[in-house]
């Protein structure tokens, strides 16, 4: 190959040479060969890929990432490039980026074993064990994936599941050394040292080069006091690694166990010099020194051991013993007293633990005050327990004592700054108080301490959602659902943020998932009902709103939401009943009074509507829509001055309220103030340039005073009509009627449509005019008139889906 390259250097020849060196594990030679191939063929994705693999094997993950990204640009969506990129990112300590890459592969091939292996390893590296478990739930059978699952279970504290998984692996693949190692680790965690030793022995037999298996086996044997069996393992390890802490400590512990204290002293002294803050090494050295009659040196080691682990009773007792042997009886007595106090404190802690368990049960059953009292008693016995302060804080939260809750959380964090739940709860308190910067800081800290903390991720997502950062919020909600697939609130929040972006189908999917987890969750039911409404699935939405009321009949918002949904389906009488109940339950809510007034107006019961709308404006002086509807009522009753007053309030509160400005202009013109009408209509057109009725009426009003502007406005109106394919007076009236209906001026809309039908006779717009009149009758509560007009429209346009749907709604209501 070298002769071929010398006479005729090509990219293929260099690539072949690099591959040869790679097979020989001569990576220092392979990498330059692949670089030469790349120089000759810079657009070859294979050259970039081969170089990246060699760099990855050589330990240069960062450079491998760059080469694989280049290969990916040249050959997009190639699974082996993407999988290698994910592996490189994970090795380069970028597990989050690796997760995204592996997921992109799995989107195309959900059963890809290499992608699932890489994904779950990256999730485990991120400490997102629950997400790794969920990803492997339906994985294809593979021993590597099964091992990843067992590791995820173990790290997530689910030792029973980990043991079951590993036992199944070693039964099916008895020669899989790594599975035996991990099963041994699980047995060690369960204090099953004989079983652990057997698994480590099998692993070492299968792979004699595995030093993790070797040292783990030796440690298990030391605990079992089988020093003679452990000795050759430790001797071999120490021979190969004479300056390694683990080797020195293990050998020292064995010598100590065999009573060879002099030999143990030297080994443990070297081990302590390498890792001065290792408690076991300090304690064992102190024990050996005491046995060798060196109490002063032993004292120093026991004191150091206690600095490392102040709660150690064994070190405390040994220290008092060597002090007594040194003739320092008073100090020995003091240390013995401390030892006895620690023992007594242990008893108190046990008593406190019992009280905490009782308090937890009271909290679950709803007896908050009893729970608070018991938490206080537990804290008097065990004041330095961070978890108890946190539990106490949650009980105070239930009692509404937020100041005391914050104080308890601060004590919890002072005792254990790494306790993520306390930081999350503080962040939630700050979020509720509107202190966004502090909330973000606490929630981010909680997530950094526990990367699979779904509740903290969801809370931070809520914060970003409130700030309009939907992409960040969505990413956090998705992580929360991956990290805890049983956490319904994360699915609800994800559904809400998707709905806010008009992604209703995706939102419905997430909310349905939440309802599978918690079928009676009123938040999920309400959110999904609103999404279903936007998807025109009104019957399902109404059914969901009704279920919310069944679950919580005293919730005013539930009755309000159902009323709105019923009104949208022409069922004004039932809507009125729901709004009336909402008013009864929440008499101080402006929005409930507004909706009751609105539906009474739609039912043409203006005298009853007026006091409701007036109450809404008293409760909320900024209730723009209520002022507007009061203006309509005044106009319909012929009270021009009152109508002007109400419409003026609406436009003052909401200057871009085009309908209110148009109506205000009409009332001013009715009173003879043509200049005022012109001003309002001009502003309405500025706000809404295609406001046809304003254009038309303003053009007519200016015909004499400003014919040039009138002509310009008429031309604009004609252009608008042409764009809407409205060619005659009948269609124009129909268009005006829709604008009047949108402004809730039902009598005006009905009058305009009737006039349009009379003018149209047999024109092409007749089906549309009958349909619009039928729908507007339904909106205003005149269902029989609505049915008559819709049936007339259906004869002229049998396949119109809107007519068919409206008649179906009317039929269902009649049934």
Automatic annotation (TrEMBL):
<keyword id="KW-0802">TPR repeat</keyword>
<feature type="repeat" description="TPR">
    <location>
        <begin position="177"/>
        <end position="210"/>
    </location>
</feature>
<dbReference type="InterPro" id="IPR011990">
    <property type="entry name" value="TPR-like_helical_dom_sf"/>
</dbReference>
<feature type="repeat" description="TPR">
    <location>
        <begin position="245"/>
        <end position="278"/>
    </location>
</feature>
<feature type="repeat" description="TPR">
    <location>
        <begin position="420"/>
        <end position="453"/>
    </location>
</feature>
<feature type="repeat" description="TPR">
    <location>
        <begin position="556"/>
        <end position="589"/>
    </location>
</feature>
<dbReference type="Pfam" id="PF13181">
    <property type="entry name" value="TPR_8"/>
</dbReference>
<feature type="repeat" description="TPR">
    <location>
        <begin position="488"/>
        <end position="521"/>
    </location>
</feature>
<dbReference type="Pfam" id="PF13414">
    <property type="entry name" value="TPR_11"/>
</dbReference>
<dbReference type="InterPro" id="IPR019734">
    <property type="entry name" value="TPR_rpt"/>
</dbReference>
<dbReference type="Pfam" id="PF14559">
    <property type="entry name" value="TPR_19"/>
</dbReference>
<feature type="repeat" description="TPR">
    <location>
        <begin position="624"/>
        <end position="657"/>
    </location>
</feature>
<feature type="repeat" description="TPR">
    <location>
        <begin position="522"/>
        <end position="555"/>
    </location>
</feature>
<feature type="repeat" description="TPR">
    <location>
        <begin position="658"/>
        <end position="691"/>
    </location>
</feature>
<feature type="repeat" description="TPR">
    <location>
        <begin position="454"/>
        <end position="487"/>
    </location>
</feature>
<feature type="repeat" description="TPR">
    <location>
        <begin position="11"/>
        <end position="44"/>
    </location>
</feature>
<feature type="repeat" description="TPR">
    <location>
        <begin position="352"/>
        <end position="385"/>
    </location>
</feature>
<protein>
    <submittedName>
        <fullName>Tetratricopeptide repeat protein</fullName>
    </submittedName>
</protein>
<feature type="repeat" description="TPR">
    <location>
        <begin position="279"/>
        <end position="312"/>
    </location>
</feature>
<dbReference type="Pfam" id="PF13432">
    <property type="entry name" value="TPR_16"/>
</dbReference>
């Amino acid at each position: 190959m070298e002769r071929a390259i010398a006479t005729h250097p090509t990219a293929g020849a260099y690539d072949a040479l690099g591959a040869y060196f790679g097979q020989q594990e001569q990576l220092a030679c392979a990498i330059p060969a692949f670089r030469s191939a790349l120089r000759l063929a810079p657009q070859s994705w294979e050259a970039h890929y081969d170089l990246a693999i060699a760099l990855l094997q050589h330990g240069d993950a960062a450079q491998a990432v760059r080469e694989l990204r280049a290969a990916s640009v040249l050959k997009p969506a190639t699974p082996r490039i993407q999988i290698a990129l994910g592996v490189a990112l994970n090795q380069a300590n970028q597990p989050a980026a690796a997760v995204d890459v592996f997921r992109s592969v799995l989107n195309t091939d959900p059963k890809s074993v290499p992608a699932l292996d890489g994904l779950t390893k990256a999730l485990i590296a991120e400490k997102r064990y629950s997400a790794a478990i969920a990803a492997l739930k339906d994985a294809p059978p593979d021993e590597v994936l099964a091992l990843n699952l067992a590791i995820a279970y173990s790290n997530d504290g689910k030792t029973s599941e980990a043991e079951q998984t590993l036992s199944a692996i070693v039964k099916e693949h008895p020669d899989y050394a790594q599975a035996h190692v991990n099963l041994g680790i699980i047995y060690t965690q369960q204090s099953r040292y004989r079983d652990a030793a057997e698994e480590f022995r099998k692993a070492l037999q299968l792979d004699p080069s595995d030093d993790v298996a070797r040292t783990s086996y030796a440690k298990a044997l030391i605990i079992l006091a089988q020093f003679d069996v452990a000795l050759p393992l430790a001797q071999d390890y120490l021979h190969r690694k004479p300056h390694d802490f683990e080797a020195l400590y293990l050998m020292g512990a064995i010598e100590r166990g065999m009573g060879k204290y002099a030999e143990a002293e030297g080994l443990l002294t070297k081990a302590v010099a390498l890792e001065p803050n290792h408690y076991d090494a300090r304690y064992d050295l102190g024990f050996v020194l005491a046995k060798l009659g060196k109490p002063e040196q032993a004292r120093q080691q026991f004191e150091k051991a206690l600095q490392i682990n102040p709660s150690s009773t064994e070190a405390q007792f040994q220290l008092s013993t060597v002090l007594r042997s040194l003739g320092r009886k008073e100090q020995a007595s003091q240390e013995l007293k401390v030892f006895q106090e620690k023992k007594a404190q242990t008893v108190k802690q046990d008593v406190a633990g019992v009280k905490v368990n009782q308090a937890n049960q009271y909290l679950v059953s709803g007896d908050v005050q009893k729970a608070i009292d018991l938490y206080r008693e537990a804290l008097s016995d065990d004041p330095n327990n961070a978890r108890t302060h946190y539990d106490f804080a949650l009980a105070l939260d239930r009692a509404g004592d937020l100041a005391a809750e914050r104080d308890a959380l601060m004590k919890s964090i002072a005792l254990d700054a790494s306790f993520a739940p306390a930081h999350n709860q503080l962040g939630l308190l700050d979020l509720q108080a509107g202190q966004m910067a502090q909330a973000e800081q606490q929630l981010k800290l909680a997530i950094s301490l526990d990367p699979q903390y779904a509740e903290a991720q969801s809370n931070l997502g809520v914060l970003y959602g409130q700030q309009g950062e939907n992409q960040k919020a969505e990413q956090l909600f998705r992580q929360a659902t991956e990290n805890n697939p049983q956490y319904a609130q994360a699915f609800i929040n994800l559904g809400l943020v998707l709905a806010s972006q008009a992604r209703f189908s995706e939102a419905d999917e997430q909310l349905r998932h939440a309802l599978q987890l918690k079928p009676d969750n009123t938040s999920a039911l309400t959110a999904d009902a609103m999404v279903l409404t936007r998807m025109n699935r009104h019957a399902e939405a109404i059914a969901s709103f009704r279920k919310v009321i069944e679950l919580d009949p005293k919730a005013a918002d539930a009755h309000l939401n159902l009323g709105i949904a019923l009104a949208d389906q022409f069922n004004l009488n039932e809507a009125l009943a729901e709004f009336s109940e909402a008013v009864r339950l929440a008499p101080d809510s402006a929005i409930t009074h507004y909706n009751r007034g609105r539906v009474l107006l739609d039912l043409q019961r203006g005298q009853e509507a007026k006091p409701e709308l007036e109450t809404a404006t008293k409760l909320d002086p900024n209730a723009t829509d209520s002022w507007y509807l009061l203006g309509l009522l005044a106009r319909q009753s012929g009270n021009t001055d009152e109508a002007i007053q109400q419409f003026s309030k609406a436009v003052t509160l909401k200057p871009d309220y085009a309908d209110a400005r148009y109506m205000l202009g009409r009332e001013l013109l009715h009173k003879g103030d043509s200049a005022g009408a012109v001003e309002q209509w001009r502003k309405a057109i500025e706000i809404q340039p295609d406001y046809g009725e304003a254009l038309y009426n303003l053009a007519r009003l200016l015909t004499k005073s400003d014919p040039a502007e009138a002509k310009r406005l008429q031309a604009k109106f004609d252009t608008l009509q042409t764009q809407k394919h409205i060619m005659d007076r009948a269609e124009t009236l129909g268009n005006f009627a829709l604008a009047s209906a949108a402004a809730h001026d039902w009598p005006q809309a009905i009058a305009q449509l009737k006039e349009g039908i009379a003018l149209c006779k047999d024109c092409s717009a007749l089906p549309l005019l009958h349909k619009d009149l039928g729908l507007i009758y339904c909106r205003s509560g005149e269902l029989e008139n609505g049915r008559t007009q819709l049936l007339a429209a259906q004869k002229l346009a049998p396949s119109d889906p809107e007519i068919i749907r409206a008649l179906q709604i009317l039929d269902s209501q009649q049934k």
